[in-house]
Amino acid sequence: MRILIAEDDNISRKLLKTSLEKRGYDVVATKNGVEAWNVLASNDAPQLAILDWMMPEMDGVDVIRHLRSAKMKQYTYIILLTAKGHQDDIATGLEAGADDYLRKPFNAKELHARVRVGQRMIEIQNQLEDHIRRLKELDQLKKDFLAMVSHELRTPLAVMKGGVSLCLDGVAGQLNDTQADLLGDTLENIDQLTRLITDLLDMSKIEAGKIVLRRDTMDLAFSVRKALNAFKYSAGEKGITLKIALNASSLPVYADADKIDQVFNNLISNAIRYTPENKEITLGVDILANDYLCYVADTGIGISDNNLKKLFSKFTQFSRVDGPGYKGTGIGLTIARGLVEKHGGKIWAESKEGEGTTFNFTLKRRDRPTVLIVDDEPKMVDVIEKVLSHGNYHFLKAYSGEEACELAQSEMPAMIVLDMVMPGLDGYGVIDKLKNDVRTQDIPVLILSSAQIEPDKISGENDAGAIPIMTKPVKPKKLIDSVESLIKN
Ligand SMILES: Nc1ncnc2c1ncn2[C@@H]1O[C@H](COP(=O)(O)OP(=O)(O)OP(=O)(O)O)[C@@H](O)[C@H]1O
Ligand SMILES: [Mg+2]
Prior knowledge:
Helices cover 48% and strands 19% of the residues. The chain is α/β, with parallel strands linked by helices. The chain folds into 4 domains: 2-106, Response regulator (Rossmann fold), CATH 3.40.50.2300; 136-207; 216-364, Heat Shock Protein 90 (2-Layer Sandwich); 370-488, Response regulator (Rossmann fold), CATH 3.40.50.2300. Adenosine-5'-triphosphate is lined by residues 199, 266, 270-271, 274, 298, 300-301, 303, 311, 316-319, 328-334, 357.
């Protein structure tokens, strides 16, 4: 094992070095804090360091503070050497991030014992990291496998469905009643399996952040009416009445109509499945200040407080419904949550056992795509807004990187116009943060900067495709066109 030592006193340094080398350690000796820091910040830094506290230029505690605040790939175990005996001082060193300490003049036996403790900690740490890496790999493998299998099953299923449907239509000759019954059951099961596979695929896409929304101005009221019609029959079979509560005949919203249908479908099919005969279910939309509040309220079996907390996790089921018919897999709500959140909305449930459940979700009350403009210079934000104001957009403005990330995560804009040079979290940092969150990773970004851009510093630049870059001052027409094409594509 390699050990870094930092000690300005020549004799102490030599003593430390020979004592450790005698025990078979590979020692990197430095004379001060700056040298030590350079070694620690390098690519193959030793995992254990013994730092003297009192050193010229940068002392041991400064090195530790530096190290702990920098985001290092690996953890360095640090033993602080101190000639000071006061309890307070040791506390300061440990608070700063030292793992252990050794008093000078040190005794060789104690030195080796403390180094061995460090070695044990490092081994445990390395084992843990190994486990985590393996678990992540396995998890990814499982996800890829699920996505691949689901995908590969779809084609043969479609072929089977086609064949059975044709037979049922009599294309291959007249069927007798038994044959028609058997094929009818087969078709029903094929449909069920197709639904399940589609759900599994959707879920793996949501988890990987690969769900792509095709947003446009749509009518939420139309979606609600469509959902009612789609479920009239299956509700009717259970004697359940479906009701609609809308405050307006049309509710325009900028969203992906298919995905919103899917959310309603999942909630309504649950409501029907978990509501006994002869009750009612209400679908509605309330208009709030900034949001639409959509809900599906049932008078069914309800959900306990404890279960409400786990409701949206995948493969969670609380009540297997007895008897024949399609039983779920417990992913309908996981998908619904993924789709709502991708729109920048929230989803939650309120319930009383035995009385019923209401599922609510919100959608931003905007009928146009949202453009988030980020620049620390307020005047610049205003100029960009003015240039883009001829387009049909809703604008959000952020004056710092931190604010930009918060808004992007809570509002899910259709695109972001981003300045790169900002105090605090700069444009590179913003991109890094957004790309590392599955929800925001595919929000298109347009870089608008006056400084030279360093492509190497842009995270995900190689795999995600180039981020368009424009230099200030920008030609209005070019900016308008770029924003439009980023939103459209
Ligand atoms: N309206 C409801 N009333 C009571 N319980 C509900 C309701 N909706 C969902 N649940 C409970 O939450 C669980 C999870 O619902 P979810 O839609 O995710 O899965 P599922 O309906 O079992 O299967 P599927 O994947 O086909 O949707 C259900 O199994 C059920 O126990
Ligand atoms: Mg369901």
